[in-house]
Every structure is written in structure tokens, then in C-alpha cells.
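Review form for a predicted model. The reviewer records the input and the model, then writes brief findings.
Reviewer: anonymous (R2)
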Amino acid sequence: MVTTTPTTKGDWLLAWDPEDEKTWDKKLAWSTLTVTTFTLTLCFAAWFLPSAIVPKLNALGFAFTKEQLYWMAAMPGLSGGLLRLVWMVLPPKIGTRKMVALTTLLLLLPVVGWGFEVTNPDVPYWRLMALAFLAGIGGGAFSGFMPSTSYFFPKRLQGTVLGIQAGIGNFGVSLVQLLTPWLIGFGMFAFLGSQQMAVAGKAPVTVWYQNSALVYVPFIIVGAIWAYIVLKSVPVKANIKQQFDIFRNQDTWWMTVLYIMTFGTFSGLSAQFGLLMANLYGSGNPHIVEGAGATATLLVEGYALPDPVAYVFLGPLIGAGARVAFSPLTDKMGGAIWTLVSGVGLFGSILYTIPALTPDTSSAAALQGGFNQFLGGMLAIFLFSGIGNASTFKQMPMIFERRQAGGVIGWTGAIAAFGPFLFGVGLTLMPPATFYLIGAVWAIACIVITWWRYARPGAPRKS
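Model under review:
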């Protein structure tokens, strides 16, 4: 089939209809997906960079309380959610090209900042909190990138396309958490000096923690230039008032509730997984370890302390992988049935995990069994949240017309991005088991909403 190359004015396409196979420029659409997915992955890496650094700050010579560390890990979620409210209105206003290129360049602020500040234990708490806030730029980008990419593809492909972009983008979380333990082991940016990292019960080791951030700088610069050269902008024009008409549609609110269950859980646990593991089964639990650093004493004889950095990347990796793998199935079977599967799976996984949130410190065997249950339950939660992330993003383009679908994707993404903040606050204010019980109740509500509104035979908005 012969397609015509769309005419442009500057970086704006003069006409664009992906539903018309005769005029749809597939090459432009798929190249847009490639560029924006690469840059979105960098955005997620920048957004979750604090989650890979914060759990190790005290081991590097900083002296923060458990509550301060929870708040620092939560701050990117607060700023990411707030900034998504800004980014969600940008695609129709400034277009894909400018938005993606400028956003990618802005990632240099938190990445370079963390690279320098992590080397100095005398840095005041407020400056690290400011950098944690700036990391939210990477989170804000999601609500601009995803709607923008959806404009380039027909509805029949949007489950797969948005699943690929969001899923691979989500791999940025695992990327930063997986690479950090390896990157800090050699003097890549040795001009900033080295640090001594003291882990409980072990001799201090020399590390270069600035590597964990600065390694992304050249990729960010390349991504920004690539975006500016390759991308075009779809003429989906709407002023702010027109974009906000989505709030008069009840499905906007139902889908927001569902996406909080899926992506709110994924992002919240991705940010807090390492700290939660350390505080329950590692050096942060005073019933397991007494003291800090190399002089710490293990109170439960025979128990092997888990190193969070060896596990934290697994959850985001599974969640992101599920989002990619299940996206084609949502195009074939519809999104609602998989959102229902996600809700049931999350409910069961949360219930399975709750007993392990109160560690039994009576023996090494009891502790190890509790840790195994905790890890298995957490990974199951990540799996089902990833399935739901794929299915909800299939539902939205089917429920709403194209202009509104972009706005709803941006809005739901913005609210769910508060996940890291809400998880941080929740785990600070109440016992983990209580917080997870609230999550189980939320999952039940989402199961009911999905079945009644979207999945059952004769549902009002079958999707």
C-alpha cells in the first residue's frame, strides 16, 4: 500500500489521520515511538535515581533518620505527580518535538545535581530534598509523552504501542537500580573523589557513588538532540479549557481510580522497596541489627542480612516486563478483562504479603521464611500491577475520543504518579501491614468498578 508523506509547517504536521491507512505514515509513527521510548526510559531513570541512592546515604557517611529517608524517597513521587499536571496539557500547546527535546534536557538538573552532592556528607538535608523534587521532572514527562505518542497511531494498535512505550520506559526504574551497584565499583568519575561505604557487619569498601548519576549525562544529551532532529508534532489543537472537559465524563474518574491501583502501586513500591526491605528484614530493623556501620551487631544468630540492592530491581523489572508482554493481549482480548485479572491478582498478592510485614525475629529460620514470603509477595504485586498498567492504557483510547483520550491518559498518569509520595507517607505514619490492608480494600473496589462498568456482558463502556 502506498502512503503519502504528510506535509509540514515547521515541526507541525498540517494534517494527520492514523485511522486512514492510505495516508497514515507508518515510518514516522514508529520512528516517533522509538525516539520517545528511548527518552522516556531516561526520564524514568532520572525519576527513580533517588530510590537507588537514598537507601545507601547513611552508609556513605550521611546521618539522616529513618523518617527523613522515607520522605526523601517519597519526594520524587510528589513532584512527579504535580509536574504531570503541567505536562499533560503540553502536547497540544507546544507539540511533540519541543516537549520531548526540552524535557530530556531538563533531566540534566537532577542527574548532575545528585552526581555532585552524593559525594559530600555535609550537604544539608534541604538540598537533597530539592534534588529529589527535581527528579520528578522525569516523572512529569510521562503525562506528556504518552498522550503525544498516542496521536500517531490508530486505535487498533494503541494497546500494543502504549504498552511498549510505557513498559520499556518503566524499565528505566530497573535500569537505575540494577546498574547502580555495578557502576559505583570503579572510578569512572574519579575527579570527584571516592567514598567509604560502611555496610552492617562488613568492612568499609571504597565506592564512587557519583557514577550512579553522571553515567546518564551523555545519553540525555544524545536523546535531546535526536528528538529535536527526528520528531514532528500532530495538530491536535485544544486550549486549556477544552482539555479540561474530560472532567465532565464520569469514566475519567473511574479510570483514575483503576490506574491508581496499577501504576500507583508500581511506582510507589518501586520507590520504597529498598527502604522497606531494609527496615523490615535488614539493617534498619533494631530487633535484627544493633548499631550501625562496621561495628553493628547481628542480634539473630545465623540470619543472613539481605542486601536490598540485590533485589530491588527485580520488582520494577517484572512489572515493566508484564506491561510490555501483556499489551498485545489487550489489543486482542480487550483491556477490561485484564484489568479485572490485575485487580484480583493484586488483592490476593497483598493478602499473601501482609503476614510477612511483621517479621518474626525469634529465630533465623523464622526470619528467613518471612523474608522469602515478603519477597515472593512483593514480586507478585509488581507482576499484577504491570498487567493492569497495560490493560488500563488499552481501555482509555477505546472509551474516549482521540483528543480526550490523550488528556485522560495524562490526567490518570499524573494522579497515579503520586504513588511514591503516598507510599512514603503511608509507611511513615502507620505500620506497613495497616497500609497494605488499605491497598487490599482499594483493590476490591477496583474489581467491582471494572466488572460493573467495563467488563461484564452489557457493561455501559465495554472496553
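Findings: The CA atoms of residues 181 and 309 lie 7 Å apart.
Further findings: The chain has a mean pLDDT of 90.
Recommendation: see findings above.
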